[in-house]
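Worked example 2:
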Amino acid sequence: MTSRRTPWNWAAFAAAEPALAGTVEERFGGGTPRSPSETHGPHHVLATLRRDGSPRTSGLEVRFLAGELWLGMMPDSLKARDLLRDPRFALQANPGPGTGMGGGDVRISGRAAEVVDAPTKDAYVKEVEPPQPFHLFRTELTEVVRTYVEDDAFLVVQVWKPGEPVRTLRRR
């Protein structure tokens, strides 16, 4: 009997670990527009894999909508081609202005699946109003990591993986 892996989307992660999910979403979404009429949010860093297996990093805006973490990008961009060929990615939050790193440094890893069904894309377009045409990817999470300094004395690393509680490591 083979075990079936259950995909973890943003809603499943947020239900399992609401405190960490809230902090991570704040780091990614703190400057993200809340309506289409607002200006663009911060660019984060998306890492994908090139055809030869070497890493590629690109700027990207992300959205948390309807229980999903969405990645939208220009048609035929290199990062879109990378994800269509190999869905694995890592996404690093923009640290914000200066070096304060309020809220810590956060990273999400997972797999991206292109959304091609019209109703889902139409709902996204209605909410976000992205430039057309575009690629839209829904994410499946495989790891979420937050690193921050506590009391100016400890480096704290929180690591979450699907089906496991958050593991917290503190280093002096």
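Confidence is low (pLDDT under 50) at residues 31-40. The radius of gyration is 16 Å.
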